[in-house]
Design goal:
- It comes from Coniochaeta ligniaria NRRL 30616.
- It holds the Pfam family SBDS_N.
- This is DUF1960-domain-containing protein.
- InterPro entries: Ribosome_mat_SBDS_N_sf (IPR036786), SDO1/SBDS_N (IPR019783).
- The chain is α+β, with helices and mostly antiparallel strands.
- The protein is about 25% helix and about 25% strand.
- It has three helices and six strands; from the N terminus they run βββαβααββ.
- The strands form two sheets. Strands 4-3-2-5 form a four-stranded antiparallel β-sheet, with helices on one face. A two-stranded antiparallel ribbon has the order 1-6.
- The chain is globular and about 60 Å long.
Length: about 120
């Protein structure tokens, strides 16, 4: 039985004070969202992002421990406390990064004998 093999897409934005991340579901929907002119977007943001949540990494790039930014951090960086507006900036100005988890095979429980 093969396990793993999942893909993970995130958009990394290097801000003035910290690094910000937003996880996205579908790379195709993200590219379509970016190609649409501002003010005329037909792709809903809910189809692009995994959740309406922003993460910071304390200046460790796209790696490290993910933390939720405070309203003050969002206000200083994006001039708004509204998470959706900050996500739009991150999606527009950030860099997409793809990770693929390797597939692995093997027994799940040796005490159950051969499979």
């Amino acid at each position: 039985m093969t396990r793993g093999g999942a893909e993970n897409h995130k958009v990394h934005y290097k801000g003035k004070t910290d690094d910000f991340l937003v996880f996205i579901d579908d790379q195709t929907a993200y590219k379509k969202y970016l190609s649409e002119p501002e003010g005329q977007k037909t792709t809903p943001l809910a189809q692009v992002v995994s959740s309406f949540q922003i993460f910071t990494t304390n200046k460790h790039g796209a790696q490290g421990e993910y933390n939720a930014p405070s309203d003050g951090v969002l206000e200083n960086e994006f001039d708004t406390k509204v998470v959706e507006d900050a996500i739009k900036v991150i999606l527009a100005k950030g860099q997409i990064q793809e990770n693929e988890f390797p597939e692995r095979q093997g027994r799940r429980n040796d005490t159950q004998g051969a499979y």
